[in-house]
Amino acid sequence: MNRLRRFRLHLFATLILFLAVSLIYHPLRSIRAQPMPSPWPMASHDAQHTGRSQFLAVQNPKLAWQYYTYWNLLAPPVIGSDGTIYIGSPDGIFYAIRSDGTLKWSFTVEGTSKWISSPAAIDEDGTIYFGDEAWNDELVDTSYIYALNPDGLQKWRFYVGTIANQGVTIGEDGTIYFGDFRGTLYALNHAGQKIWSTELLGQNEFGGTHTTPAVGYNHVIYADSFYSLYAVDIDGTILWEYPTEDLISYAPVVGEDGTIYFGSEDIFYALNPNGTLKWQYSADWTIRMVPTIQQRLETMGRFIYLRLMELFRFESGWDLEME
């Protein structure tokens, strides 16, 4: 009888502990929305940054329309499911443009000096996320990650306190990932609450994220900080660091086999999922473009395209052709 009573007490205590942990942790992780199933919902199309669309490109292109802004646009656009095009401008204005080229709405970020040059991301309910770089009259940093409703009204904003203009990625579970100029990688939920943050200090103990994080098919997050590429687990734990000789120029790309591709100055790297070098290629020019992965269905091979002064094509890991 005493043994049965102890078992019941132990079971009851276990349930209470489970409920207590759930009340603390679950609200942060459960408020999610997946990426929007649209033609181009985030930078380089998807969380892996493959740059691969499911649609055939226009075969005989001609100018349909143009929309004038007062500044050169530095960020690539993203596209909603209704065809709306979203893009930020270096004058601190974020635009929503209809598919016919007319303005749907615009949103101006806070700050006296403000700048938007990073790609946005859209989730399944139409919420648009983007970061900025801004200061007020007292030169206090007022940089935020913004979440806007489809009608252009602010839903929430998350204060970063340093440049947050590197781009936003939405994981398959709806978690929002971004890095800041101090080298901190953040994970937010759909309501703008911080799930975790991890400092990526780099090999010289100096941080600074310059690119948009990528999320692998294994849910591992890949992000740069100064002269290193990091792999971070879904709970914020650093799995490995791969040091490079120069700054990482553009966002990493994850292949279907888990290979991570990225450029650092004039070297193009391919890493295994465990962080070891698979191969590298030394180019004659600085790499400042995100590579694109093409799936070749007839042979299940892969082409990796990289634009420098010429168009490079890497096939099956090593073979190099120039287009």
Main features:
323 residues, mainly beta, Lipocalin, 1 helix, 26 strands, 35% strand
Overview of the structural elements:
This protein has 323 residues and is mainly β. It has a domain at 31-199: Lipocalin (Beta Barrel), CATH 2.40.128.630. Helix content is 9%, strand content 35%. The chain contains one helix and 26 strands. It has one helix at residues 2-30, and strands spanning 78-79, 85-88, 93-97, 103-108, 113-115, 121-122, 128-131, 133-135, 144-148, 154-159, 169-170, 176-179, 184-188, 194-199, 214-215, 221-225, 228-232, 238-243, 253-254, 260-264, 267-271, 277-282, 292-296, 301-307, 311-315, 319-322. Strands 1-2-3-4 form a four-stranded antiparallel beta sheet, with no helix packed on it. A four-stranded antiparallel beta sheet has the order 6-7-9-10, with no helix packed on it. It is globular and about 50 Å long. It starts with a helix and ends with a strand. The model is unreliable at 18-26, 296-311 and 316-323 (pLDDT under 50).
